[in-house]
Amino acid sequence: MIEKVYQYIKENNMLNDCRHIIVGLSGGADSVCLLVLLHSIIVQYQMDIDVVAVHINHEIRGDEALRDQRFAQKLSDDLGVVCHVLNKDVKAIAKMRGVSIETAGRQVRYECFAQIKRELGFLDTTTKIAVAHHIDDLVETSLMHLIRGSGIQGFSGISPVNGDIIRPLLCVNKKEIIEFLKMKGIGYVVDSTNLESDYQRNQLRNQLIPMIEKKYNPEFSKAVYHMATDLLEINRYIDRQVDQLEPICVRYDSTNQKVLASLLLDKFQHVDRTLQTYLLRAVLKKVAQSPVDIYRKHIELLMQLCQKQVGKKINLSNGIVAIRGYCDITLRKSVHQDVHLDKQEDWNPLSIDLSNIKTGEEQCVKLGISICDINGTWHKVEKICLQLVDKKEIKNIYLNNVYTKFFDCDKISRKIDIRFKEQKDFIQIHANGGKKKLKKELIDLKVPANVRNHILLLACENEILWAVGVRRCQTALIDENTKNILKICVVIGD
Predict the structure, then answer these.
(1) Which residue has the higher pLDDT, 339 or 4?
(2) C-alpha to C-alpha distances, 396 to 248, 336, 392, nearest whole angstrom
(3) Fewer CB atoms inside 10 Å of the end CB: C or N, the chain?
(4) In whole angstroms, how large is the CA radius of gyration of the chain?
């Protein structure tokens, strides 16, 4: 067993350049086997790797959970491994996040692993997080994804390596794990909820799979395993193609530790449809910033949104919102904040004289105000910075992110006002000069009525150059004749 797992680790390059391993230790047979095997492999093959165990008390099973905690701590002590215990109210977290207890538990586990890694000062490049998934888990996960409609990417189940996460036991099944522990005389605890059929996974494990193996195919689990591993290799190949397409089709921007993605439709729509679906999954995972279940329906909704009119919005899993823009689709996690929208904070509009700005020098105006974006999400603006930049020194000037825009400085007035909405405001929406009242444009973009007065504007009198977080105008576009480029950056704080 030790040699089998060791060879699997080598085949998948799990411990290359590794100095620290964080092992999730629940106290159950799988995690106990994982910790014991990794400890044995490191000792036997004289690896210079430190092992740390992490036990998470989900505060669901009362005395039984305390029993598991004490067992995990004692096992770690016996092996000479440090065990970190974290207590998390998973039921409360699930309710707060609007997800199932099972999903919340999974999210919390990986968040705790990351927390311990930070607290111990372990480097991302030399630290691995080991979890105890085995062949039976892969089979169950593949079937669950198939039932929920996640497509072949979901049916491929669980990857042996996913970033810093490694799964050394994916080469063995539950029966082998139990036999190994029995042979070594090592005990483990049993989570009573695993014997129940309240959750979908337990129903698959305790009812559906045994029934299929008894009535139709005793090798059913093995057949699913081989199918899933074959699909995993196919997915890896497709992922390599997606890695090349992603920087062409997607722009990412991070604000307030949230990731916003802009899907560039003119590029995306020329991509093969199969690669489109994989690309969308990759984008959703990055925007979610946590383990997330992505199903076929989510991808179909996004594909349909590509053909919808500007301003259309859809809600996806894990609180992700997608909005159709003129040239792109933006995806971000929605943030619900308790803000009184009936009162604008006291703040006097400002003006900036562009004639005072010299090439290469940055002029910043401190604000310290709260603003809304197109989703009604609130942000704190620290300052606005303006700078005249040389066209030759800027790459991808047309690929502006949400809070940085470029203008032809010679095509705009010498004074820019920084303020909120006024009655006579208008915006140029077409390069040929077509204009629209700002109020009508915000309505067409489905901006909530109660936040329209909280969108920060950069204006030349009543002509809006940029409604921050919503859209810029088609005035002062950069072209081949542009000499002076004005870069405007809105700096978002915590």
Answers:
(1) 4
(2) 11, 33, 11
(3) C
(4) 27
